Amino acid sequence: MDFGGIMKQAQAMQERIKEKMEALEVEGSAGGGMVTVRMNGSKKLLGVKVSPEIFASADREMLEDLFLAAVNVASQNVDEALKEHLGSLTGGLKIPGLF
């Protein structure tokens, strides 16, 4: 068995996965779209959109809850997208910490 070759293949696969994760973008929203966040496959927050009507209520706690919910939805969407997009790269292997 050529362990050096196996390691090179594993590193190449890891790089491809990392590239796909960085390129992947998903959204999550809450409050009927009052707060929307964009996140990449590494779960880095890329952007936030807040509907102007949310400021009219001046309810800070509601806004905080909506941000939290939108980020959680985006995070779940990343997990689902990674399972869909990267499953073929890993050959069905379940890699701990990836998805």
What does this molecule look like?
With 99 residues, the protein is an alpha+beta fold. The protein has a single domain, classed as Nucleoid-associated protein YbaB-like domain (Ybab, Chain: A). 54% of the residues lie in helices and 18% in strands. It is built from three helices and three strands. The protein has helices spanning 3-23, 53-57, 60-86, and strands spanning 25-30, 35-40, 45-50. A three-stranded antiparallel beta sheet has the order 1-2-3. The longest helix has 27 residues, at 60-86. The radius of gyration is 18 Å and the shape is rod-shaped. The chain starts with a helix and ends in a 13-residue tail after the last helix. The mean pLDDT is 84.
